[in-house]
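Folding problem:
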Amino acid sequence: MFKMTLSLHRARGSGFSLVEVLIAVGLLGLIGAFTIPKLLDGGTKNTQWKRMAQAMAVQLSAAYSNYKMDNTVTAGFHAALLGPYFDNVKRKTSGLVDDRPGQGSLDCTWAECYDMHNGGTLILFNDNTFGGTSSEFLVYVRFDPDSVYSGSSSGIGKSVTYFLYYDGKIRPETDARVGDRTFWYGAEAGWSPHTAPVNPSYVPSWFNWN
């Protein structure tokens, strides 16, 4: 009898009681209830934003094509001229949206912001132009998928940049053609040529072209 009691005591001492197991399982469930939905939501949101940005590129291409049907594209073309060629948009004249990664916010009191029906904001600038009428010239456009300023230069939902070329091609910031990245910038400075920055760190983590 003594030996049996000792054996049972050792077995209990070397493992976990049912109550302890239930507490551990309960804690794991509680942690999972808070963390798993956030992980799933983050992945879903990234996928949604990527699809929105890809669709936005298609709309941008269509708007430029329609503009060319009505107008002669000159060296002085800037992206803000495309505003009327987007369907179902509303001009946002105040508030902040995200600039690209590494930058802070864009103020819609001076940048031409358009709220899109997909929930994002398209930013069409009038301060950079083609500067020429051949395929290497471009202007840039930005798209903020959640239409709000994330509060920092590296927050979620930073804007993606598109390069719109004179010949109608659209490329993301990391896919611009080497040597074909010229745009003209700065009306106040009399418009001077610049080279569009191409750096992977300028592309938001949620975006890829594939």
